[in-house]
Structure formats: structure tokens, C-alpha cells
Specification:
- It contains 16 helices and 17 strands.
- With 478 residues, the chain is α/β, with parallel strands linked by helices.
- A 15-stranded mixed sheet has the order 4-3-2-5-6-8-1-9-16-15-14-10-11-12-17, sandwiched between helices. A two-stranded parallel sheet has the order 7-13.
- Helix 11 links the parallel strand 10 and strand 11.
- The radius of gyration is 24 Å and the shape is globular.
- The N and C termini lie far apart (55 Å).
Length: 478
């Protein structure tokens, strides 16, 4: 006869085996990363109950599942935008496509190329904020503003005043602030905006414990569209630190890009989808999507990317460009933690003779990111990539230029968060003149930088190398 204690033990073992089998099936069907899948399987089978619990809490990708709801909204809003006057004028008028654009990258996107645009880079908040505020002040019909951080400081309050004044004179105004980014300012500026009558929403914000699993689902986009015909995008949040003339304690250099022409309709469509997802309101019609005529000669494509993977095309774009770039690739980014595949393709590009320059801030505003970054340098340097560390102030600019013809700018960093978790907005363009202008900007950044060398890395103490090596292990989470 079996002892009661033994029966309970056998019962628990049986329950654990059933749970482990069920979790193993979920892992096999849903985990694309082989190493992650094996790690979770070992944890589940070697740690009874605990492993399965940890997997349920941290291993299930609820982010993508939650984001899938946004996918349908985005498609519907894009259709509404086209149906209610979001007409693209003419075809592509810029420089001819590279073969890789036609054969590779073209297949990654639902968004079409838009020809006939004008792009004006705005260096630092000293130039960008006055231009953005001027556009808001001259708005006649509508204003759509999305940002990750909107600080309640002197600059933030200038934007509040401008938006409230526009609302008071009859302009339709919508403001979307990320739920996590809003916490950078206390009290959140959304309260001030709402008190002034400005329709304001926060993207995926909740204090409910069962919704905390969505904290990683962040809207990192920075979009301003005025009257449906003038657009701004880039990496610049709304905060005083971006105005270098203000001499703040932590100045942050950055760029914003003013866009005019047919591509603005796609910027507006991205905002409208996010707004519909957050508020339930559909923005459509001539008020938000007027007919747009050509304004210049730049070919643009808006790359809206995020964890729903329907728009997870930025990473594919980078992979396509890295396989096909022929002579020179230059990258400027504040955070550089590429995965193994991108690291390998950067190395291969350098080995086949491409000049690869990567410009990063010498001092990061997140010290642990710099530790992890440094541990990735040896592989790239060994292949012939050049890495430059730019002197302060901290530079938040996000740029890439290939072969003096193709350029990429927007809100994304070269790290796992931007390429897998965040909702981002970037623009790739075909314009030799603009590409050369941005290339000269990167050349000026390199002139202010010091080169990273293999000898310099090897001369670091063992403690620093261990610190950086351990930080690199957390690269997928940074």
C-alpha cells in the first residue's frame, strides 16, 4: 500500500510533467531563437514548477500579441487615409534605384515609395523647436503630435501654449504621449494639456498589475503633422535639454527632419493608426489627409516598425542594405547593441572592402549601455570596421548613409529595443544631394571623435573587461 506522503509526491511529479510538456509544446511552437528555446526548456524541466512559472511570466511574448490588435487598426486607417483624399501625386522622381532597393527591400514593405518630397534637416532643438512651433502657430486645420517624452519644462510649456492657442482658434489638435515616456516628467504634462482643452492620450498606460507586462510596448515615435501637409520626424523628444543654447546640466544634441510632399500622408497614417488604437477615434478626410502635390525631388518611404511584425520591416531593411552596400556605410546612433546577425553582416561588409564607420557618443546617458557596447567592439574592429567616440555633449542623432545615395533617419536606435520591442518611425530616402549632406554631417562628427583601437581595448583592466562582458549578456534586454 502506498504511503499518503508518497502518493502526494507522485501526484506532484505527474502534475509537473504535464505542465512541463505543455510548456515545452508552447516553446517549440513559438520561440524562434533556438538558444532561447533551449534555455527555457532546460529551466522548465530542471526547475519543477518554478521554471514553468518564470516562463509564463517572462517568456511568453504578450507584447506581440497585444500589438497584433494595432495591426488591423493601422491597415484600416491607412485605407481610410487613401480613400478620403490622401492622394500621392506622381511617381518616383529622384535618383534611380539601386538594384537592392528594387529586388530586396521593396519586398519588405507594404508602404510604397513616395516621390516628389522636400526634406530639410534641422540640427538641434535650437533650430528644430522654433520651426515646429512656427508650423503649429500657422496651422489652419489640424495638428497631430506624437512623442515619447514631453517634459513639463520651459520648452514643453511653450508647446502647450502653442497647441492650446491653435485649439482655441478652431484647429483640431490631437496629442499622443507614450505611457512610459510620460513618466519622465513629474507631474505629467498631459494634465496641463488637458486643462487647456487639448485632446491628449497616453499610449498603453496603466497601473493595474496584470497590465504591467505591456510596459515594454512603447511608442518611441516622434511625429508632428500640421494641416496634413507639413511633417516632422526624427529622434528629438520635447524637452529643454535639446536646446544647446540653454546650457542645461545634461545637454542633448539631436536632429529633426521637416518633410513636405506626398510622404507626409504616410506619416499622418501612422499617427492616425496609433491614435485610433489608443483613443478609438478614427482620423480621416481632407482635414487630416489632404491631396498632396510634389514639393521637391526626394524619394521617401516611411518605415513604421513594431513588435506586431506586420510592420517589423526596419530590421529587414538594415539587413538588405548591409548585404548590398558597395563602397561606404556610415552610421551615427546613440545606442549601438546590434544582434549577432547584424554584427556579422557589418563585419562581412568591411571584409569585402566597404568603408564602415560607426559614430557613437563617448559618454552615454545610460552607463550600462556603454559597458555592453564596448564588449561588442572587438569583433567589428577585427573585421576592419572603424568605431568613433564623439566628444560631449551627448549626441542622440540617428542616421545611416550608404554609397552616397541612400539615407535612413528617424526614431530607431541600433539595439534590440528599437528593432524588436518599440513602435518606431523611420524614413529611408533616395537622394544623392541629401545623402551627401548627411554624410558631411557625419564627417564633422568624426572630426570631433577619437578612434577606438584594438590596442586601447586590450589595455583595459581585467575588472573593466569583465564588467563589459557581463553587461553584454543582457544586450537583448537593454
Amino acid at each position: 500500500m502506498t504511503e499518503p506522503g508518497s502518493a502526494i509526491g507522485y501526484g506532484l511529479v505527474a502534475i509537473d510533467i504535464v505542465i512541463a510538456l505543455g510548456v515545452s509544446v508552447h516553446i517549440a511552437l513559438n520561440k524562434r531563437d533556438d538558444r532561447a528555446a533551449v534555455t527555457w526548456l532546460m529551466l522548465v524541466w530542471l526547475s519543477p514548477f518554478v521554471g514553468a512559472t518564470l516562463y509564463w511570466l517572462f517568456g511568453v511574448n504578450r507584447i506581440a500579441r497585444r500589438a497584433i490588435k494595432l495591426r488591423g487598426v493601422r491597415g484600416a486607417v491607412k485605407f481610410a487615409g487613401r480613400a478620403f483624399g490622401g492622394t500621392l501625386a506622381g511617381g518616383l522622381t529622384g535618383a534611380p534605384f539601386r538594384a537592392y532597393e528594387a529586388s530586396l527591400v521593396e519586398r519588405f514593405h507594404q508602404a510604397p515609395w513616395a516621390g516628389g518630397n522636400r526634406v530639410h534637416p534641422l540640427r538641434s532643438g535650437d533650430l528644430a523647436f522654433p520651426d515646429m512651433l512656427r508650423a503649429i502657430g500657422e496651422a489652419k486645420a489640424s495638428i497631430a503630435l506624437a512623442t515619447y517624452i514631453f517634459n513639463d519644462d520651459s520648452i514643453g510649456r511653450r508647446f502647450v501654449d502653442a497647441l492650446a492657442d491653435a485649439q482655441a482658434r478652431g484647429v483640431e489638435v490631437r496629442v499622443l504621449i507614450d505611457g512610459v515616456g510620460a513618466l519622465y516628467s513629474v507631474p505629467p504634462i498631459a494634465w496641463r494639456l488637458r486643462r487647456r482643452g487639448v485632446r491628449t492620450e497616453r499610449f498603453l498606460t496603466s497601473i493595474l498589475p496584470w497590465r504591467m507586462t505591456y510596459l515594454n510596448l512603447r511608442n518611441h515615435r516622434k511625429i508632428l503633422v500640421v494641416d496634413g501637409c507639413i511633417g516632422f520626424l526624427g529622434g528629438m523628444n520635447i524637452k529643454r535639454a535639446h536646446v544647446l543654447a540653454e546650457n542645461t546640466s545634461r545637454p542633448t544634441n539631436d536632429m529633426q527632419f521637416r518633410v513636405e510632399g506626398p510622404a507626409v500622408a504616410d506619416l499622418m497614417a501612422v499617427f492616425a493608426a496609433d491614435w485610433a488604437f489608443t483613443s478609438g477615434e478614427t482620423l480621416s478626410g481632407e482635414l487630416w489627409f489632404p491631396t498632396l502635390d510634389a514639393a521637391g525631388g526626394t524619394d521617401l518611404r516611411c518605415l513604421a516598425s513594431g513588435p506586431d511584425e506586420e510592420v517589423g520591416s526596419l530590421r529587414r531593411t538594415l539587413l538588405g542594405v548591409l548585404t548590398q552596400v558597395r563602397t561606404r556605410l556610415r552610421i551615427a546612433t546613440p545606442y549601438f547593441l546590434p544582434d549577432d546577425e547584424i554584427t556579422n553582416l557589418l563585419s562581412v561588409a568591411a571584409l569585402r572592402g566597404v568603408e564602415v564607420d560607426i559614430v557613437l557618443p563617448a559618454k552615454s546617458n545610460q552607463f550600462y549601455m556603454k559597458w555592453a557596447e564596448t564588449a561588442t567592439f572587438p569583433r567589428l574592429l577585427a573585421a576592419g570596421c572603424r568605431i568613433w567616440l564623439e566628444a560631449p555633449p551627448f549626441d542622440h542623432v540617428k542616421l545611416a548613409v550608404a554609397d552616397d545615395q541612400w539615407a535612413l533617419f528617424g526614431s530607431s536606435n541600433w539595439d534590440a529595443r528599437s528593432l524588436r520591442l518599440n513602435f518606431e518611425i523611420d524614413t529611408e530616402c533616395i537622394d544623392a544631394d541629401l545623402a551627401r549632406e548627411l554624410d558631411r554631417l557625419i564627417t564633422a562628427k568624426i572630426a570631433r571623435s577619437r578612434a577606438v583601437t584594438v590596442e586601447g581595448l586590450a589595455a583595459r583592466g581585467v575588472a573593466r573587461r569583465l564588467r563589459d562582458g557581463f553587461a553584454r549578456l543582457f544586450k537583448p534586454f537593454l
